[in-house]
Write a structure and sequence with these properties.
With 230 residues, the chain is of the alpha+beta class. The protein has nine helices and four strands, in the order βαβαββααααααα. Strand 1, helix 1 and strand 2 form a beta-alpha-beta unit. Helix 1 packs parallel to helix 3, helix 1 crosses helix 9 and helix 4 packs antiparallel against helix 5. The chain is globular and about 45 Å long.
């Protein structure tokens, strides 16, 4: 069992979330880039590691020899258990449920469905004549998602998971790292004016960008957060 984790990731993909968690917790790790554009995730070697053909994958560290962990929410939960004192994963039952509520929504409805309709239409149909309809439906769903996120973040909370007691502050969780990278997808790929469409979400992004762990993750992935389209 290695003392250091290995994270298989692609710059700017959903693996950013797990990467940022590793940085925020200060856990020793190395990075193994996966070139998605070149199809590395579909090679025999990578499929032997993760038959799903996706990122992220976590290996090494405290995991049993030969075992890996997949799916960003599951990886985040496992990593946060190593440093509960960091408070990145809440222990209050309602706050933890709210975090899972966010993670399910962002990893499932947003990423695997609404975003994939636009970015990965072949997952839904091999017939390219359907893709324009998929794109139209994706944009409708993304508008609804943005409105939902704005409504949740518009109550004055500093981070995604709300406070659970009188005077208790909201605090950083992996859901915020999801919101950070998915905001960037919309700006980078769609060029939507998110500062105007989603001012509360934008304010969260700007708070997160001030965090050292986020800056370290962006630098390690050689990623400019604000693409030229912004």
């Amino acid at each position: 069992m290695s003392n250091s984790f290995t994270l298989y990731y692609a710059p700017g993909a959903c693996s950013f979330v797990t990467h940022a968690v590793l940085k925020a917790l200060g856990l020793p790790h190395s990075l193994a880039p996966v070139a998605l554009a070149d199809g590395q995730q579909r090679t025999a070697d990578y499929l032997a590691l993760n038959p799903k053909g996706r990122v992220p994958v976590l290996a090494g560290g405290s995991l049993p020899a030969g075992e890996v962990l997949t799916e960003a929410p599951a990886i985040c939960r496992y990593l946060c258990a190593h440093k509960p004192e960091a408070g990145l994963w809440p222990t209050d039952p309602l706050a933890e449920a709210r975090l899972m509520e966010w993670l399910n929504y962002l990893s499932g409805h947003f990423h695997a469905f609404a975003w994939a309709l636009f970015a990965r239409p072949a997952r839904f149909s091999p017939d390219e004549s359907h893709y324009a309809t998929f794109r139209e439906q994706s944009f409708k769903l993304l508008d609804e998602i943005i409105a939902y996120i704005e409504a949740r973040l518009g109550d004055g909370r500093a981070f995604a998971v709300p406070a659970t007691g009188p005077g208790a502050p909201s605090h950083l969780t992996p859901a915020d790292f999801y919101l950070l990278i998915q905001y960037r997808w919309i700006v980078a790929r769609l060029g939507w004016p998110m500062r105007e469409k989603a001012p509360h979400w934008t304010a969260l992004v700007e708070r997160l960008l001030a965090l050292p762990a986020v800056q370290e993750t962006l630098a390690a992935e050689n990623l400019d957060y604000w693409p030229k389209a912004a």
